[in-house]
C-alpha cells in the first residue's frame, strides 16, 4: 500500500534536505528519497565538507612546517600522518551526516532509502537495495539530485591514477606529481591540499585564465599567489588523451586553438572540468519534464517545471552549482508550497575558493559591469596596509569594491586574502539591503580586524582611503 505525502523530495543534499526540513516546519508531511547510506548528498559526503577538512588540516601542517618560526614559535620534526588526517576528515563527515539524520527524526521526515524515479503524476517509485520497490504518493515532487563530475573525452576515470574530486579525497599516499585538469574552484582547492602535503602540482586549463567566472584582476593575483606556492600552470591548453602505466600517467596535450601536441608525465591526474546535472534515470522524459540544452530542468520563478506538481532546485536547474544557492532555493520552494513568498536574490550569492589565501566574490565583476555599459567606480585596499594582516603575517591580496558611479550602490565585491570567505558576508548583507559604498564606509569597523580592509576599500571608491 502506498504512503501518501504532501511533498516527496528526491535527493538529500543541501538543497533537498533543507527543503525537506523547511517543508516539515511549515506543516507539510514530507519524505526524502536518498540512495546513499548517509544523508547530505555530494556536499557532506564527498564534496564541500571533506574537502574543507583536508584543506584545514593541510594548512595547519604547512603552517607548522614553514610559517610559525616567524612568530617565534620553533617547531621541529614536523611530519605528515596521512592516515590520521584522513581520519579527521572521516569524523567530520560522519558528524555532519548524522546531524542531518537527527534533524530528519526531529522534524518527522521520512527517509525513503533507495533510488527514485517518477512513476506518474504524484507517484515516486523507490527501488531499494534488495531490489524491491516502494511507491510514494504525493501532492508534489521536488527534484534535488544535484550533479556529478563532468567526464573528459579521451580520459578514463579509474579513481586511482585518474581521479575526480571523489578519488582525490581518498588517495592512500602523497603523489610526487599531480596534474589538475581544470582551473576552477574544486581543482585548485584539491591541488592546494596535495601541494601542501608535498606534491608537485601542474594545472592544465583550456581557457587563458584560472577561475574564469571571477573578476579578472582577482584571478591574475590568485594565479601569481599560487605560483609562489609552487603551482605550475599550462593555460590555453587542452588534454586530448591519457595513458596509464605502472609508472604513472602520460597525458597528451595540445594548444586550445590547435597545434603541435606534447606529453606530460605525472603520477595522479585530477579531472575537474566542471559538473553536470544529475537528471538521468529519474523518469523525467516519461513524465514530460522539459530540459534545456545542458540537461537542466526548466523551471518558472516558483521553481515549478512545465509539469504541474514537479519542482526542481539546486544543480539540476540553471545558476551557479553551489550548495548555499541550493539551500536558499530549498527554503524558498518550501515556503512557496506552503503559500508564503519564498524568494532567492541571485545577484547576491557569494562564491568562495577555500585555498590560502581564500578568494571570495559577490555580485558583478568589473568585466560584467563594463559589458553592461554601466558607469562605475572602483575602490581597492591591499592587505599589506592592514594592521591585523601584518600582525597575522597574512598580507597577500586586496579588497575590491565596484560601485555605480551615479548612485554609489555596491554592484560587486571581490576579495583575495586571509578569511576572504568570512569577510565577503558583510558585503552580502550590505548588497541585500542595496547599500552604497558610503554606507559601508560610514559603518564603524572594529580595530584591528581584517574587515577594516573592506571599510577602506569602500572609502577608496570615493578616493578617500585613510591608510594608503
Mean pLDDT: 97
Describe the biggest sheet? 7 strands, mixed
Output the CATH topology of the largest domain. Answer: FAD/NAD(P)-binding domain
Give the fraction of residues assigned to helices.
25-40%
Category from helices, strands and their pairing: alpha/beta
Structural features, described:
With 468 residues, the protein is α/β, with parallel strands linked by helices. Helices cover 32% and strands 26% of the residues. The protein is built from 14 helices and 22 strands. The chain has helices at residues 14-25, 41-46, 48-67, 82-106, 165-168, 185-196, 216-228, 284-287, 323-337, 366-371, 387-392, 420-432, 437-441, 452-461; strands at residues 3-10, 30-34, 110-113, 115-120, 123-127, 133-143, 147-149, 162-163, 177-181, 200-204, 232-234, 237-245, 248-255, 262-266, 268-271, 275-277, 310-312, 351-353, 358-363, 376-382, 398-404, 410-417. The strands form five sheets. Strands 1, 2, 3, 4, 5, 6 and 17 form a seven-stranded mixed sheet that branches. Strand 9 (177-181), helix 6 and strand 10 (200-204) form a beta-alpha-beta unit. It starts with a strand and ends in a 7-residue tail after the last helix.
Tags for this model:
26% strand, alpha/beta, FAD/NAD(P)-binding domain, Enolase-like, domain 1, 32% helix, 468 residues
Quick recap of the structure?
With 468 residues, the chain is an alpha/beta fold.
Helices and strands in order:
Elements: E1 3-10, H1 14-25, E2 30-34, H2 41-46, H3 48-67, H4 82-106, E3 110-113, E4 115-120, E5 123-127, E6 133-143, E7 147-149, E8 162-163, H5 165-168, E9 177-181, H6 185-196, E10 200-204, H7 216-228, E11 232-234, E12 237-245, E13 248-255, E14 262-266, E15 268-271, E16 275-277, H8 284-287, E17 310-312, H9 323-337, E18 351-353, E19 358-363, H10 366-371, E20 376-382, H11 387-392, E21 398-404, E22 410-417, H12 420-432, H13 437-441, H14 452-461
Parallel strand pairs: 1-2, 1-6, 2-3, 6-17, 8-15, 9-10, 9-15, 10-11
Antiparallel strand pairs: 4-5, 5-6, 7-16, 12-13, 13-14, 18-19, 19-22, 20-21, 21-22
Helix pairs in contact: 1-9, 3-4, 3-6
Amino acid at each position: 500500500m502506498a504512503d501518501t505525502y504532501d511533498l516527496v523530495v528526491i535527493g538529500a543534499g543541501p538543497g533537498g534536505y533543507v527543503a525537506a526540513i523547511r517543508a516539515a516546519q511549515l506543516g507539510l508531511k514530507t519524505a526524502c528519497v536518498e540512495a546513499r547510506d548517509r544523508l547530505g548528498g555530494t556536499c557532506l559526503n564527498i564534496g564541500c565538507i571533506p574537502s574543507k577538512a583536508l584543506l584545514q588540516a593541510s594548512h595547519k601542517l604547512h603552517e607548522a612546517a614553514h610559517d610559525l618560526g616567524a612568530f617565534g614559535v620553533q617547531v621541529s620534526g614536523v611530519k605528515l600522518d596521512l592516515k590520521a588526517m584522513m581520519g579527521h576528515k572521516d569524523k567530520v563527515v560522519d558528524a555532519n551526516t548524522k546531524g542531518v539524520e537527527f534533524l530528519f527524526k526531529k522534524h518527522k521526515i521520512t527517509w525513503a532509502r533507495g533510488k527514485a524515479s517518477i512513476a506518474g503524476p504524484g507517484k515516486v517509485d523507490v527501488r531499494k537495495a534488495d531490489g524491491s520497490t516502494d511507491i510514494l504518493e504525493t501532492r508534489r515532487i521536488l527534484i534535488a539530485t544535484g550533479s556529478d563530475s563532468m567526464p573528459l573525452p579521451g580520459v578514463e576515470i579509474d579513481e586511482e591514477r585518474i581521479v575526480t574530486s571523489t578519488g582525490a579525497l581518498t588517495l592512500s599516499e602523497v603523489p610526487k606529481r599531480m596534474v589538475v585538469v581544470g582551473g576552477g574552484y574544486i581543482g585548485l582547492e584539491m591541488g592546494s591540499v596535495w601541494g601542501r602535503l608535498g606534491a608537485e602540482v601542474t594545472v592544465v586549463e583550456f581557457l587563458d585564465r584560472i577561475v574564469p567566472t571571477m573578476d579578472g584582476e582577482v584571478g591574475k593575483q590568485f594565479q601569481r599567489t599560487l605560483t609562489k606556492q609552487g603551482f605550475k600552470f599550462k593555460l590555453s591548453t587542452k588534454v586530448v588523451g591519457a595513458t596509464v602505466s605502472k609508472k604513472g600517467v602520460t597525458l597528451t596535450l595540445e594548444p586550445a586553438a590547435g597545434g603541435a601536441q606534447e606529453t606530460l608525465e605525472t603520477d595522479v591526474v585530477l579531472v575537474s572540468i566542471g559538473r553536470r546535472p544529475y537528471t538521468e534515470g529519474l523518469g523525467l522524459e516519461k513524465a514530460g519534464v522539459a530540459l534545456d540544452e545542458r540537461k537542466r530542468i526548466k523551471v518558472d520563478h516558483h521553481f515549478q517545471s512545465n509539469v504541474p506538481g514537479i519542482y526542481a532546485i539546486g544543480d539540476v536547474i540553471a545558476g551557479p552549482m553551489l550548495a548555499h544557492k541550493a539551500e536558499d532555493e530549498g527554503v524558498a520552494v518550501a515556503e512557496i508550497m506552503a503559500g508564503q513568498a519564498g524568494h532567492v536574490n541571485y545577484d547576491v550569492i557569494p562564491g568562495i575558493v577555500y585555498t590560502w589565501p581564500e578568494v571570495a566574490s559577490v555580485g558583478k565583476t568589473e568585466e560584467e559591469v563594463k559589458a553592461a555599459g554601466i558607469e562605475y567606480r572602483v575602490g581597492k585596499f591591499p592587505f599589506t596596509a592592514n594592521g591585523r594582516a601584518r600582525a597575522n603575517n597574512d598580507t597577500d591580496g586586496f579588497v575590491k569594491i565596484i560601485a555605480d558611479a551615479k548612485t554609489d550602490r555596491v554592484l560587486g565585491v571581490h576579495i583575495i586574502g586571509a578569511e576572504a570567505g568570512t569577510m565577503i558576508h558583510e558585503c552580502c548583507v550590505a548588497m541585500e539591503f542595496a547599500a552604497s559604498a558610503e554606507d559601508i564606509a560610514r559603518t564603524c569597523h572594529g580595530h584591528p580586524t581584517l574587515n577594516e580592509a573592506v571599510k577602506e576599500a569602500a572609502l577608496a571608491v570615493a578616493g578617500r582611503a585613510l591608510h594608503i
